[in-house]
């Protein structure tokens, strides 16, 4: 047990002061999502790893946990992509280049990159789940020779909800990326796969001993994707999931994001499936 | 460890004397039948025989409502809030309350150590006092006896209506310098202060009970009685969950970010922006509360995260009793074990 | 340009509107943010379009229905003010009786001269964008909503019971003083003003979502009132919300 006398003053932190970051780029990329590029003050770096998140704040409104969407290998700046679903995010949609955004973080556990080096990376992204996974994808692409295959499965409800369409095109054209995109509800222009994301899994040819899966999507998706991957005999500990909870403080204090005994903001949001499988509240 | 005798009538003089070492905070009467920790204005107002305060002493270190930053909407900027380190003496604190502060230290200082909490916690001294257990106290069952003196600098043990004053630390020694209404004496053991409320098992057996308790029928029964007011958690001395909200002045120019105590028993506690609620049903929340007290942190730290103050029961409008729930889980577990054995 | 704001009253005591006139210190600050274009209690002006229309009172007659539709058509944002507008409030107690009996009790032999409907929340007739609860609504609550609308943010929603604010103020629990209080299941946001002054909560801000009604009745009866009395207390402000 941690005791008061074990703690020195200098070891304590002002946990709730945001760093004001300048918006250096902003673009509405779908009806619901806006992309931002931000710059830390005085040339400092955010210093995140793929899968981590920040608390974004707007004064007078509040804070919300937002995944970091850029790779740490992108120097100097970082990117967020924010869906407008809540009070805060609906205000953030008015933020443009030059505005200042309050940032705390990065927080939580990202992907354990040491365990991923040399492996085949299977990305399973549902809807807005592509936002945090894009950080991992771009990290793999920036360090391409350190990884095996890069397989990206991406599902959206409709073609108009597909995120980062220009990057999707680039990934599509690259020989060293296997991209499979599907939509639940196609429109007349759609020529690709139709159906939920799990329909892309059975035909995959995976090397079981070297494949690491990284899954992010809406809460309902995880069980089904995990089931599909399990039916392909992928071992539990080669599956990583990024879970969504109400990560209010980001520093393991406020209690809102607790999943049984673990704090999503500290022990996650990226979890190894083998670790959270016993947790009743996880999936 | 030195022990002195102190007449009950001389306690106000001791409280006045302690004022030299900081602001003295002690239990006072509140309302018709309640008590609360308040700053001492007149030492004769301090209540020595009280069952429990409405809010725990936690409120002095993690305030119910606390300003985190002040901001200006015009300049998109904020100012920091300076939490001063002020010497304080907490007088008349029960053993379970002290134990709750030690647990709170762990919660707020492990992992990311919070500076606000740390500063408030610095320079605090504690003077304990014994108590007569009422129908709600069960601290003995979670390992905290009436005379548990860990964390205190001084401790007052009531003996025959007067007190024996134990000196436990150098700080305690210092606080008695120049106070002459005490006489060296032999410590006595006080008999007959018995707990009426008990958990049937020793607390070190509880993690095992909780290991099998997740799908117990007990939770549905508790949920049917729980009205979801959050009183249990808001008055709990070891709960530390909070919410953070921004408030804007009527000028719409300035405002502040505030945190306030929150409760995992409230239906919106685990709801996210998209509308998904990860503990939507009362049954999930009542279970979570008990698991927080007897399983999750306990597995890691080896101690129940409940100190047996009885507040959650005493202040529950539905009369839901934490020790009763635990005893029901124990009974259920015994039945299950019996059936397992018989079947074999 | 500042938003054009109007206030309208339907079936109510108009106490909420009077409460706004009592803003004193804050009134000038408020008028910095908005243009008041219609407010029967305070001025004579009229306008054709409103950025924000505040509605007080419940809808209780065919002519009310017509008028609220007209206001809705001319308003960008419509806000229900006070418990009568938000859920029917005390007016809705009449809905517990057959409407003809109610008319006869109130108007006697002239009952056929007065058309009447069950007392309805404004939201049962037209779309309501936001609400300020309470009987009367509190000034603080109204100001929070107004500032939120001016800043373009969502006004606060209260998902926690009155007990939360009451506990944070370290009030002595009224149940411990032998009273019966609706705080545990009543929507907070009032800063627990009644219990803070020793008055039990009457539920004027409405019942929380998914309440444990049976549990609450059990709490109330176990603290010394009859089941009948417990139900009456619960229905006082919430006849339209609670099915007993």
- Low-pLDDT stretches of chain A are none
What proportion of the residues of chain A form beta strands (DSSP E)? 25-35%
Q: What's the mean pLDDT score of chain A?
A: 94
Largest sheet of chain C: 5 strands, parallel
SS-derived structural category of chain A: alpha/beta
Number of strands of chain A: 15
Helix content of chain A: 10-25%
**What is the radius of gyration of chain A?**
19 Å
CATH topology of the largest domain in chain A: Rossmann fold
How is this fold's topology laid out?
The complex is a heterotrimer of chains A (283), B (344) and C (244).
Chain A: E1 19-28, E2 33-39, E3 53-58, E4 62-67, E5 77-83, H1 87-92, E6 100-107, H2 113-116, E7 120-126, H3 130-142, E8 150-156, H4 165-173, E9 178-183, E10 193-194, E11 211-216, H5 221-231, E12 239-242, E13 258-259, E14 262-263, H6 264-267, E15 270-272, H7 273-276
Parallel strand pairs in A: 7-8, 7-11, 8-9, 9-10, 11-12
Antiparallel strand pairs in A: 1-2, 1-6, 2-5, 3-4, 3-6, 12-15, 13-14
Chain B: E1 2-6, H1 11-18, E2 23-30, E3 34-39, E4 65-72, E5 77-80, E6 88-93, H2 95-109, H3 115-121, E7 124-129, E8 154-159, E9 162-167, H4 170-176, E10 183-184, H5 206-211, H6 218-225, H7 231-234, E11 242-248, E12 254-261, H8 282-294, H9 296-301, H10 311-314, H11 322-343
Parallel strand pairs in B: 2-6, 6-7, 7-8
Antiparallel strand pairs in B: 1-9, 1-10, 2-3, 4-5, 4-12, 8-9, 11-12
Helix pairs in contact in B: 6-8
Chain C: E1 4-9, H1 15-21, H2 27-33, E2 35-39, E3 50-56, H3 62-73, E4 75-81, H4 82-87, H5 99-107, E5 130-132, H6 139-151, H7 162-168, H8 193-196, H9 213-222, H10 227-235
Parallel strand pairs in C: 1-2, 1-3, 3-4, 4-5
């Amino acid at each position: 047990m941690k005791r008061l006398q074990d703690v020195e003053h200098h070891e304590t932190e002002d946990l709730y002061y945001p760093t004001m970051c300048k918006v250096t780029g902003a673009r509405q990329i779908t009806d619901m999502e806006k992309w931002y590029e931000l710059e830390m003050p005085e040339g400092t770096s955010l210093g995140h790893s793929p899968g981590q998140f920040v608390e974004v704040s707007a004064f007078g409104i509040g804070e919300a946990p937002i995944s970091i969407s850029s790779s740490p290998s992108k120097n100097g700046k970082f990117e967020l992509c924010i869906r407008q679903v809540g009070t805060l995010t609906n205000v953030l949609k008015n933020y443009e280049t030059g505005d200042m955004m309050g940032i705390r973080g990065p927080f939580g556990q990202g992907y354990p990159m040491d365990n991923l080096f040399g492996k085949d990376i299977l990305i399973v992204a549902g809807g807005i789940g592509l936002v945090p996974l894009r950080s991992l994808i771009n990290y793999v692409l920036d360090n391409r020779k350190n990884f095996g295959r890069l397989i990206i499965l991406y599902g959206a409800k409709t073609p108009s909800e597909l995120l980062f369409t220009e990057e999707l095109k680039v990934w599509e054209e690259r020989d060293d990326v296997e991209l499979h995109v599907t939509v639940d509800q196609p429109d007349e222009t759609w020529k690709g796969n139709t159906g939920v994301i799990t329909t892309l899994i059975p035909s995959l040819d995976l090397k079981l001993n070297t494949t690491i899966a990284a899954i992010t999507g809406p809460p309902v998706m995880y069980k089904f994707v995990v089931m599909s991957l399990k039916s392909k005999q992928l071992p539990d500990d080669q599956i990583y999931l990024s879970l969504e909870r109400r990560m209010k403080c980001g520093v393991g204090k406020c209690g809102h994001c607790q999943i049984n005994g673990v704090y999503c903001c500290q022990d996650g949001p990226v979890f190894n499936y083998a670790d959270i499988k016993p947790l009743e509240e996880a999936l | 460890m030195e022990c002195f005798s102190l007449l009950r009538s001389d306690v106000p003089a001791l409280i006045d004397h302690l004022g030299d070492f900081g602001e003295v905070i002690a239990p006072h009467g509140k309302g018709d039948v309640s008590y609360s920790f308040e700053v001492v204005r007149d030492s004769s107002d301090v209540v020595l025989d009280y069952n429990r305060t409405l809010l725990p002493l936690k409120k002095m270190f993690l305030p119910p409502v606390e300003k985190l930053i002040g901001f200006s909407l015009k300049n998109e900027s904020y100012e920091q809030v300076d939490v001063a380190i002020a010497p304080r003496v907490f007088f008349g604190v029960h053993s379970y309350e002290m134990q709750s502060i030690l647990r709170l230290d762990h919660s707020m200082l492990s992992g990311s150590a919070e500076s606000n909490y740390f500063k408030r916690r610095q320079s605090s001294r504690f003077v304990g006092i014994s108590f007569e257990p009422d129908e709600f106290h069960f601290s003995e069952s979670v390992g905290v006896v009436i005379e548990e003196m860990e964390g205190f600098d001084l401790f007052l043990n009531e003996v025959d209506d007067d007190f024996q004053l134990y000196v436990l630390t150098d700080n305690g020694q210092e606080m008695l310098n120049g106070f002459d209404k005490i006489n060296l004496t032999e410590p006595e053991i006080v008999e007959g202060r018995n707990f009426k409320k008990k958990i049937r098992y020793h607390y070190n057996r509880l993690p095992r009970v909780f290991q099998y308790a997740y799908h117990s029928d007990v939770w549905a029964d508790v949920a049917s009685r729980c009205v979801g007011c959050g009183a249990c958690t808001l008055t709990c001395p070891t709960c530390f969950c909070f919410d953070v909200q921004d408030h804007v002045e009527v000028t719409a120019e300035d405002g502040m970010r505030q945190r306030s105590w929150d409760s995992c028993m409230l239906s919106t506690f685990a709801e996210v922006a998209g509308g998904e609620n990860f503990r939507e049903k009362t049954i999930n929340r009542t279970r979570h509360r008990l698991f927080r007290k007897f399983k999750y942190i306990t597995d890691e730290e080896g101690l129940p995260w409940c100190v047996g103050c009885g507040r959650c029961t005493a202040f529950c409008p539905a009369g839901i009793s934490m020790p009763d729930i635990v005893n029901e889980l124990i009974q259920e577990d015994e039945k299950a074990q019996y059936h397992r054995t018989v079947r074999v | 340009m500042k938003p054009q704001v109007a206030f309208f009253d339907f079936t109510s005591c108009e106490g909420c509107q009077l409460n706004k006139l009592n803003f004193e210190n804050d009134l000038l600050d408020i008028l910095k943010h908005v243009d008041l274009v219609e407010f029967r209690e305070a001025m004579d002006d009229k306008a054709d379009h409103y950025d924000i229309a505040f509605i007080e009172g419940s809808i209780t007659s065919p002519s009310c229905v017509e008028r609220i539709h007209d206001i809705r058509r001319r308003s960008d944002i419509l806000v229900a003010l006070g418990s009568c507008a938000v859920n029917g409030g005390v007016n809705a107690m009449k809905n517990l009786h057959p409407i003809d009996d109610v008319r006869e009790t109130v108007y006697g032999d002239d009952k056929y001269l007065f058309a009447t409907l069950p007392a309805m929340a404004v939201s049962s007739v037209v779309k309501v964008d936001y609400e300020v609860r309470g009987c009367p609504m509190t000034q603080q609550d109204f100001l929070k909503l107004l500032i939120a609308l001016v800043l373009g943010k969502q006004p606060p929603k209260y998902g926690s019971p009155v007990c939360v604010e009451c506990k944070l103020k370290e009030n002595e629990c009224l149940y411990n003083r032998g009273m019966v209080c609706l705080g545990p299941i009543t929507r907070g946001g009032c800063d627990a003003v009644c219990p803070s002054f020793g008055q039990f909560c009457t539920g004027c801000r409405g019942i929380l979502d998914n309440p444990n009604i049976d549990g609450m009745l059990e709490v109330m009866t176990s603290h010394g009132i009859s089941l009948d009395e417990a139900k009456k207390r619960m229905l006082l402000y919430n006849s339209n919300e609670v099915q007993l």
